[in-house]
Amino acid sequence: xxxxxxxxxxxxxxxxxxxxxxxxxxxRHFRRILELFLHGLHGEEVELHxxxxxxxxxxxxxxxxxxxxxxxxxxxxxxxxxxxxxxxxASAQDLEEETALLLSQLNAFAGRLALDSVYPLxxxxxxxxxxxxxxxxxxxxxxxxxxxEQILEYMKLCRELLGKRLFVFVNLKCFLDAEELERxxxxxxxxxxxxxxxxxxxxKYISGETVRIIDDDLCEIS
Length: 222
Description:
single chain; alpha/beta; 7 helices
């Protein structure tokens, strides 16, 4: 997989066991790159191109996940929760007898409440497993995870439920120290994630990084 922009000297490639770091010291260019990512994620046509190993163009918004702040990742994203509910609904199909009994009991309970009420009530009832799953309001419980663990869990969900192939982090080195980054990188390598760090300043080099710098004069240094 490759990410390319016409004014870069060469595309950014994502070989296994390598973390790609793009340091953009020129503030306006840094802002421009972020804007391109955001426009691309909204389905707009942008100058950034993502291609597979056979140089086939990949839909940007379907394959890229951009994370600005690891404290505000999209665990409650409607699309993510929707896909999670679909998986749980499929899993419930293997529990056909238990599910049918539960739906029957819930509807009987609602009927009893309606009959016992002093008001003239009606109810729609629980007709399907998907209704039941939605009513249970499942969410990802990451409150006891460390920040790196939360990031990894979010990446796993995005890849498995939404099909994301490239994860782009903005100034991640401001949030994690060297030891945390080293452990995080090892997990990334093990899971074979493609990762790009967009950094506005050059930080300490961590083993496993491939660094490209665009300096204040817009010169590239690899």
